[in-house]
Amino acid sequence: MILGVSKSYALFYVGFVSQLNISKARETVMSKPNSTFQFRNFQFKNTVGERTFGFVDLADLMAKATPARSGDRLAGVAAESAEERAIAQMTLADVPLSLFLEQALVPYEEDEITRLILDDHDKSAFSLISHLTVGGFRDWLLSDLATSDVLIQIRPGVTPEMAAAVSKIMRNQDLILVAKKCHVKTAFRNTIGLPGHLSTRLQPNHPTDDLTGIAASMLDGLLYANGDAVIGINPATDNVQQATRLIKMMDEVIQHYEIPTQSCVLTHVTNTIECIDQGAPVDLVFQSIGGTQATNDSFGFNLANLAEAQDAALSLNRGTVGNNVMYFETGQGSALSANANHGLDQQTCEARAYAVARKFNPLLVNTVVGFIGPEYLYDGKEITRAGLEDHFCGKLLGLPMGCDVCYTNHAEADQNDMDNLLTLLGVAGCTFVMGIPGSDDIMLNYQTTSFHDALYARRALGLKPAPEFDLWLTKMEIFKNNEQFTLNHQLPDAFHQSLNRMIGGRS
Amino acid sequence: MSQDDYPSDKSFPTHPHAPAATEQGSKTTSKEEPVTENAWNKLNAFTDARVGLGRSGISVPTKHLLAFQLAHAQAIDAVHTQLDSDTLSKTLMEQNWAKDWMTNCAPLMLHSRATDRATYLQRPDYGRRLDEESANILDEHRASTSQDYDLAIVVVDGLSSLAIEQNTQPFLQALFSHLDDWNLAPISFVKQGRVAIGDEVCERLNAKCVLVLIGERPGLSSPDSLGLYLTWNGKVGLTDAYRNCISNVRPAGLVYQEAARKAFYLLKEARTLKLSGVKLKDRSDDDLIIDTSTESKNFLIS
User: Fold this and answer.
1) Does residue A169 belong to any structural domain of this protein?
2) Residue A394 has pLDDT above 90, yes or no
3) Which range is the signal sequence, renumbered to this chain (chain B) (predicted)?
């Protein structure tokens, strides 16, 4: 009964909303309570019954259409009511995709990322979807017209803003279903992103960069079958000397055990360039990136630095099965925290960062979704939503998108929220997740997915590690049964000697 | 700064490697046991990371699951438990070393513009400013005295009331042995505050310098970590570039005597140079000889 009533109400409701309404009708201003805005021209208006909702411009409309989150409230760009959000979503659904090519959300002249997005836009790739509105784009993406091959074809025609816009009117299951169709393969010493596979970054951080402590976590991770995406350390002391020391250490381990994987020290891009200049065995170049030039200014780099670093890493020619040498990290909220969001919502800023990433053909892109804290993503629900949005937008734009499924202790989130997001992302075909001992990062003081969690995702969803790494796990007798992800009960022979050195005999 | 002798035996009590929690009986492993112990679990002697936990199938064994949940619970409680500044203030007044200071000028009990914890967590801007009543308290105090204050000490709950309750008294005691010729403003306690709120206290008290003691974002195994922030000539609107920070002050981290030594070094330098922040470098460890010859080798390959 109730279902029937609400259904007919919905139909009735839609009948009154529909198209963009640029009339000068008298309005009840919902977007800005401040009376000075009463007479301002709104680019978008939408009348529902007696009331007209106005949205100043495309940025305003995008922000108000964004599912609720604390960072947008902090920025003062969020919808003022649930109704205004729903109306904004309806209004956004009627915006033609082509409008995003005409109206830059951050001025072209001021921002090199806007220039990158518009200058690199591929009109012929776009022609397949150029007739669509944002709402029509959602239907198209979910339809059988959008096969995996077609989704690869349209990639260079999709801008981050189009991806962000459509994600705002998609439910979580839509984000999962479409992302699963987007296949993104990359390679360095192994092949990442094949359908039915999930890789892990082994993250052996230590609060003082102590080599024994790091080696202990590395051993733990390898023996739990983790580390095919990358062995990546966030250094506690961030300078060239320290980065070189850690790069060498990981290189020695990778060579000694002939592990088909790659290493990375997550230091500033300019440090990595210096490391390469000094002859350090650099596999991947790392950088945290944001979606506006001002954000990246605050991170101390620009696009030219990334190009220089990519060239330097390519010149080492260290990849064996591929040449994707970049590792990027992102996360909603970074632009606002750098005071560089240009009035945009945080998810749109985040999607723009993916334009930066895809310019440099990365091996891995990681959205560190819950790290930034509750002033940007308040609780498990907001973190989950953001993780799925980021993964979807990244995949649609052609990125090898992974997710640091994580939370801090001042967020309203716990291990159950992480289990949920990990499972959802596993279903969505997420490229990689983190792996650390017991979920506890003792250097960065937050909780992310553990070595055990990755094995849970493998068993629950049948997701395999990168094929080259999978073979290595068999050869080293770490896996006893690769199909069922069963670990060896005994310590594999190759590790006896090293362990004996440290703890003096088997226990 | 030599942190290489990180005291792994001083883990927070609920950490799985903490001394009391360990030797519950190292069971011999047989293949029939549902829990597979890891041969490398003794590596936990070399790191606080939760290595070698063993597994039930491929999942975390019950005892480690529950230990984790307890550690997370303590971290949450550290964030959400209200700071009892009245009790803390009374405790301080009973200390011999603090008697003169605390009885001459009563502690100032202040509150930020964040009315409750949920608001505090979502609106860092509110946590950086005093509410009206608190601003009045400071203004009235300033009007009632003609003293020149060299230093205002501001105790702020931040993200861990546990850190404040556990570390404030011993740290201040250690610091006080250095502060003979400093004219101190009355101590302030701020609820629902962020680091920058110290600058407003400094400005309203017209103190030359402010030292903020604040509860840091709790880690899973360090819910009790205290941070120290120094600003010379603190004023509303200053950014982090004007502050010097000493982090991780707690029994298992930077110990009180060391923290006090570093803090006093920075205070003294700030007073001499009349500045703080990026232009004030912490050279308090320059005299230490850095010995890398004993650095641990990577046992996985050598």
Assistant:
1) no
2) yes
3) none
A375 Cβ contact list (under 8 Å, min separation 6): A70, A71, A74, A333, B121, B122, B123, B124
Average pLDDT of chain A, as a whole number:
92
C-alpha torsion sign, points B11, B13, B19, B25: negative
Q: Does residue A506 lie within any of the structural domains?
A: no
Give the pLDDT confidence of B99-111 residue by residue, as tens digits: 888 777 889 999 9
What tens digit of pLDDT does each residue of A282-308 get?
999 999 999 999 999 999 999 999 999
Q: Are residues A227 and A88 in the same domain?
A: no
Residue at A142 is within a domain: no
Band the pLDDT of B288: cuts 50, 70, 90.
low
Q: pLDDT tens digit string along B61-75?
A: 999 999 999 999 999
Where b means 16+ CB within 10 Å and e means fewer, B15-48 reads bbbbeeeeeeeeeebeeeeebbbbbbbbbbebbb
Phi/psi at A70 (nearest 5 deg)? -65, -35
Reference B214, options B274, B270, B179, B171; nearest CA is B171
CATH label of the domain that carries residue A35: 2.30.170.30
Query: Does pLDDT of A15 surpass 80?
Result: no
**What is the longest distance spanned by two Cα atoms in chain A?**
83
Are A220 and B38 a contacting pair at CB < 8 A?
A: yes
Interface residue B261 vs chain A (CB under 8 A):
no
pLDDT more than 70, % of chain A: 92
Asked whether residue A323 falls in the same domain as residue A470, the answer is yes
More confident call, B183 vs B302: B183
Q: Which of A42, A75, A93 is the last residue of a domain?
A: A93
Q: Could you tell me the pLDDT band of residue B239, with boundaries at 50, 70 and 90? A: confident
How many residues appear in chain A? 507
Do the Cβ atoms of A439 and B68 come within 8 Å? yes
Give the DSSP per-residue string, B127-161. HTSB-HHHHHHHHHHHHH--PPBSBEEEEE-TT-H
The model carries a pTM of: 0.89
Q: Which chain B residues are closer than 8 Å to A459 by Cβ?
A: 58
Q: Sorting pLDDT into bands at 50, 70 and 90, what band is A155? A: very high
pLDDT mean over B154-159? 98
**Structural domain that includes position A216:** 190-493
The answer to whether residue A386 scores a pLDDT higher than 90 is yes
Q: Could you say which of A93, A111, A135 is where a domain stops?
A: A93
- Phi, psi dihedrals of residue A186, rounded to the nearest 5°: -135, 165
Answer yes or no: is pLDDT of B32 > 90. no
Q: Please indicate, yes or no, whether residues A229 and A367 belong to a single structural domain of this protein.
A: yes
pLDDT, residue B4, reads 44
Contact B110, B201 (CB under 8 A): yes
List residues bridging with B57 in a β-sheet.
Answer: none
Structural domains of chain B ordered from first start: 8-18+34-78 (no CATH), 82-273 (3.40.50.11240)
Question: Alpha-carbon distance B115 to A292, whole Å?
Answer: 33
Best mutation site among A220, A371, A382 for testing chain B: the one with the most B CBs within 10 Å? A220
With H, G, I as helix, E, B as strand and everything else as coil, classify residue B286: coil
Give dist(CA A175, CA A17) in Å, integer: 25
One domain, residues A88 and A218: no
State mean pLDDT over A46-53: 88
Q: Please identify among residues 71-100 of chain A the ones whose CB lies closer than 8 Å to any CB of chain B.
A: 73-74
Nearest CA in chain A to B4: A208
Could B59 and A452 be called an inter-chain contact, meaning their C-beta atoms sit closer than 8 Å? yes
Any A CB within 8 A of B42 CB: yes
Chain B environment of A370 (Cβ under 8 Å): none
User: For a pLDDT cut of 70, what percent of chain B falls above it?
Assistant: 87
Number of independent structural domains in chain A: 2
Cβ atoms of B242 and B276 closer than 8 Å: yes
